[in-house]
Amino acid sequence: MDLEIRVVSRPGKKNFFASYENVTEVIQTNNFFTETSEWYEKLCQDIDIVIHLAWYAERGKYLESSLNIECLSGTLNFASAAAEHGIKKFVGVGTCFEYDLDTVKGLDVNSPLNPRHLYSISKSAAFLLLSKLFLNKKIDFLWTRIFYLYGEGEDDRSLVAELKKKLKLNETIDLTQGKQIRDFMDVAVAGSVIADASMGSNVGPFNVCSGKGISVRQLAENIADEYGGRSLLNFGARKDNLSDEPFVVGIPSKVIDIDK
C-alpha cells in the first residue's frame, strides 16, 4: 500500500526521518500542545488518518506533572481541528494505567477504569472526550492503550536500558525483589501493531501488549544472562515501591480487516 506520511517532530529531528521513503514532509514545533487552532487546521489539510503519539513522558516526573493538563488541552484543540477538516480516522495513544490495577486478572478493553495519577486521569479524560467528539462527527476513533515498552530510543534511566548499560560495564545493579509481574513489549513491535490497527477497521479502545506476564526479576535475569552477568544483580537492595501494583498484564486486541 502506497502511503504518504506527514510527521510532526521536535526541532532537530528532521534528519531522523529522512531515511523513511514514505515520509514526504516533516513539520517541526517547539511545543505541539500550545500551537494555535490555525496551525492545527493547516497541519490536518489533505490528511485521512491522524496518529497522535505526543504527550509529556519524562521518566520520574510525568505521572503527577501539571504538564499533563497542557497535553490534554492541546490534544482536545488538535482533535477539534482534525474533526473540522474531515479526516477519516483519529488514533490516540493511552496507557494501561487507565485501568483499575487492583486485580490479578488479565486486563481487556472492557476491564473497569480507575486512573490514579494525573497522567492516567488526563489520558482517560482524553479518551472519553474524544470518543464523544468523533462519534458526533461520525469519524472513526481508535484509542490504543500501551503497556510496558522497551527498546530502541528508550530513556537511559529505564529498567532495561540501565541493566544493559551496567552489565556492559560489569557493574553491580541494585534492584528490588522484582516480584512484580509485568507485560513487556518491544517498542518496534508495538509501533507495528498501532500502525496495522490504524490502517485496519479497529475502533474504540485497543490493548497494545504481549499478553504474557513476566516478573521483573525474571526479565532482569534473562538480560543478565546475555552478558553472563547474573551475579551482578543485587535483588532486594532497593525497597519495593508501595504504590507499585503487583500484577499488570493485558489481553491483546486483534487487528481486523487490514488491507496491506
Task: Give a structural overview.
- The protein has six helices and 13 strands.
- By secondary structure, the protein is an alpha/beta fold.
- It has two domains: 5-149 and 184-211, NAD(P)-binding Rossmann-like Domain (Rossmann fold); 151-178 and 213-235, no CATH class.
- The protein has a four-stranded parallel β-sheet with strand order 3-4-5-10, sandwiched between helices. A three-stranded mixed β-sheet has the order 11-8-13.
- The longest helix has 19 residues, at 118-136.
- The protein is globular.
- The N and C termini lie close together (6 Å).
Write the layout of secondary structure elements.
Layout: E1 5-9, E2 23-28, H1 37-43, E3 49-52, H2 67-84, E4 89-95, H3 118-136, E5 140-146, E6 148-150, H4 159-168, E7 173-175, E8 181-182, E9 184-186, H5 187-199, E10 204-208, E11 214-215, H6 216-227, E12 233-235, E13 247-248
Parallel strand pairs: 1-2, 3-4, 4-5, 5-10, 6-9, 7-12, 8-13
Antiparallel strand pairs: 8-11
Helix pairs in contact: 1-2, 2-3, 4-6
What characterizes the major β-sheet?
4 strands, parallel
In one word, what is the shape? globular
Q: CATH topology of the largest domain, what is it called?
A: Rossmann fold
The CATH class of the largest domain: Alpha Beta
Supply the helix-strand structural class: alpha/beta
Number of helices: 6
CATH superfamily of the largest domain: NAD(P)-binding Rossmann-like Domain
Fraction of helical residues: 25-40%
Mean pLDDT: 95
Radius of gyration: 20 Å
**SSE succession:** EEHEHEHEEHEEEHEEHEE
The low-confidence runs, each spanning 5 or more residues with pLDDT under 50, are none
Which second-level CATH architecture of the largest domain applies? 3-Layer(aba) Sandwich
| Total number of beta strands | 13
Strand order of the largest sheet: 3-4-5-10
How many domains, in number, for the residues? 2
